[in-house]
Amino acid sequence: MRPFTQHDGLVAPLDRSNVDTDMIIPKQFLKSIKRSGFGPNLFDELRYLDEGKPDQDSSGRPLNPDFVLNQPRYQGASVLLARHNFGCGSSREHAPWALDDFGFRAIIAPSFADIFYNNCFKNGLLPIVLDEKVVDQLFAEAEHAEGYRLLVDLESRQVKTPTGECFEFEVDDFRRHCLLHGLDDIGVTLEDADAIRAYEDRRRDSAPWLFGAIGRD
Amino acid sequence: MSGKTLYDKLWDEHLVKQRDDGSALIYIDRQLLHEVTSPQAFEGLRLANRKPWRVDANLATPDHNVPTTDREKGVDGIVDPVSRTQVETLDKNCDEFGILEFKIRDQRQGIVHVIGPEQGATLPGMTIVCGDSHTSTHGAFGTLAHGIGTSEVEHVLATQCLVQKKMKNMLIRVDGQLGAGVTAKDVILAIIGRIGTAGGTGYAVEFGGEAIRSLSMEGRMTVCNMAIEAGARVGMVAVDDVTIDYVQGRPFAPKGADWDRAVAHWRTLHSDDDAVFDKVIVLDGAAIKPQVTWGTSPEMVVSVDAQVPDPAQEEDPIKREGIVRALRYMGLEPNMPIEAIKLDRVFIGSCTNSRIEDLREAAAVVKGRKVAASLKQAMVVPGSGLVKAQAEQEGLDKIFIEAGLEWRDPGCSMCLAMNADKLGAGEHCASTSNRNFEGRQGFGGRTHLVSPAMAAAAAVTGHFVDVRELIQQGGA
Ligand code: SF4
User: Fold this and answer.
1) Is A49 among the domain residues?
2) pLDDT for A216 beyond 80
3) Which residue in chain A has the smallest CA separation from B434?
4) Cα–Cα distance measured from residue A97 to residue A92, given in angstroms and rounded to the nearest whole number
5) Which residue segment(s) compose the domain that A128 sits in?
6) DSSP letters along B286-339, please?
7) A79 CB contacts (<8 Å, ≥6 apart)?
8) If we measure between CA atoms, which residue out of A186, A122, A33 comes closest to residue B43?
9) Do residue A80 and residue A113 come from a single domain?
């Protein structure tokens, strides 16, 4: 996985609460068996005026001029500013894949849906929870000043504004560690293979019905 | 020291290792796989040259992309080539890694959350995961079950474990008895209306109280299924006789001496009397009426006898903007009665409401009546091939067909419209599924979530109506 230490990026404000995973990446694009290529269909129904189809070149499609990511001042944005309960709905990891493929590296919101939050970390995308009042302030600043950027520092767990104001955020030690070093979770877990086997041996004695019932004949 | 909650017990029993940084390795007893969220996980295994840790912990089936007609043709019957590739990829992966899969032509095929319990692959006390947020369904059996992303699907395939942090405990208690015509679906919609779509975020939710205890397993599954719609990854109901009776005799359930041992253990799977929850929410079951969603989020829900809300009455500016936006998308006017909403289609199905009891409830309402002429379509999609066979044995298919509803083959179907079953732009649908997000059932489609009985009532009248009135009238 790509490590994340620090990122300085242009901010795009998406002023809408309860943005669900169907909005982030509509279901017709989930038919891919790959992990990449979802960027052109990020927020498809909000971004384009027509109905998006899988396997279609999106470059010539009519854009919705009102949608924030279509405005010239937010081109190249890599920090998404969002509202409450961002990423609610399904468990589809296609949502962080699409955000990542589009070019986002960090998302700031007052709250996230649990599964989405978790999925972000697996893909080198950093979800940051900041207090609602702080998020309100960042929205106001981003909408006011063209070219507004934020510096996200995972090492020091801080978001820094252009005026030097700093906001601390919380993040799990384990997740932070994996992201900072770009570690493969599976590799980390397999270091405990002996503990897993010992657990299984105990369970086979205490609950044998959990083993071997399902299989191919 | 206070006692343990059901969640505490399940957590402790599956703890492989507590790490110093607060995270924990949790053992996973069962993984369910389907075609949409697994291909990249299998590909990841191959790229890293890894094998599944325990093949017998997995069960797979295609459900999201399968057509609900012409199933004799098998995979070749999937017209959309991209959908077909996804189903073929699941077949190929399961064959390569030796994982048991109920393929498209197997009678045991169905929606993963229907077939797990049906086969006894879902057993009390298990930890269960699936790359699908409605995995919370299985919590109805006193299991710790939740949805995961594709990276975690790969992680579980490779290690049989997940890295987790313990959640907080919430109890949602529904006291009293439900009225006639009020179902599990109305209970969970009322709960979501009360606590909101983020009300359960960060919590493992246990549903309890007399109204929940009185539900069948099907009803409990409906409630737990939509825990995620309240933001909770995990929804649970304690084990009791209803649970054990349901599990007994299922194909993968333990037998003989193992069964007795298992049952003795399962009977301990409830919260202790002195367990402390971080949060408790109480509802009066007797006060719950049939529910209908009017907006684009499951929390936008009211009783069938109420009106569409008026944004002018909402003080919070963000919420007000949300209501305005939802009304615009849904094409509804403030203050119009819910019963005045005209419908174009009716969908009875999905992992929320496609089990035998759901179909019986819907059939009881349409029996002897006809689908309203104003409807374009009303369809019933059973949750699995076995549910379908059972319904046909009971003659439910004939009741539906005589009333003018379509009787389809099992799958997710119009719940998320990845197959050919979709809403057209602007169409209103009474749906027994779980999400009314914009575009969920088709581009521009307008979804209203209801119970199977309410969907059936809507089918025969062409608009929403309190199903309790139809029940009183009896068959036509
Ligand atoms: S029926 Fe709907 S909610 Fe359930 S698994 Fe299928 S698509 Fe998901």
Assistant:
1) yes
2) no
3) A89
4) 9
5) 6-183
6) GG---EEE-SSSTTSEEETTSB---GGG--SHHHHHHHHHHHHHHT--TT-BGG
7) A7, A9, A10, A11, A12, A104, A105, A106, A107, A108, A149, A150, A152
8) A33
9) yes
CB A152 within 8 A of CB A7: yes
Query: B307 to each of B295, B335, B438, B455, how far by Cα in Å?
Result: 12, 5, 21, 18
Could you count the other beta carbons within 10 Å of the beta carbon of residue A137? 15
DSSP 8-state code for residue B131: S
| Contact across the interface for B161 and A34, Cβ inside 8 Å | no
Number of domain units in chain A: 2
Cα A150 from chain centroid?
17
- 0.90 surpassed by pTM: yes
- Is B25 in contact with A192 (Cβ distance < 8 A)? yes
What's residue B453's pLDDT? 98
> Which of A89, A173, A208 lies at the smallest CB-CB distance from B437?
A89
Question: Which residues lie across from A48 on neighbouring strands?
Answer: A63
> Are A27 and B25 in contact (CB < 8 Å)?
no
Q: Do A32 and B82 touch (CB under 8 A)?
A: yes
Residues 324..343 of B with a Cβ closer than 8 Å to A: which? 325
Q: What is the CA radius of gyration of chain B?
A: 22
Tell whether A132 and A206 lie within a shared domain.
no
Nearest to B163 among A28, A189, A193 (CB): A189
Q: Read off the pLDDT of residues A16-59 as tens digits, 9 standing for 90 and up.
A: 999 999 999 998 899 888 888 999 999 999 999 999 988 889 99
* Euclidean distance between CA atoms A107 and A114, whole angstroms: 14
Ligand 1 neighbourhood includes B111 CB (under 6 angstroms)? yes
Only one residue has tokens 């790969």, namely B154
Question: Does the complex come out with an ipTM higher than 0.95?
Answer: no
Give me the residue from B86, B163, B437 closest to A33, CB to CB. Answer: B86
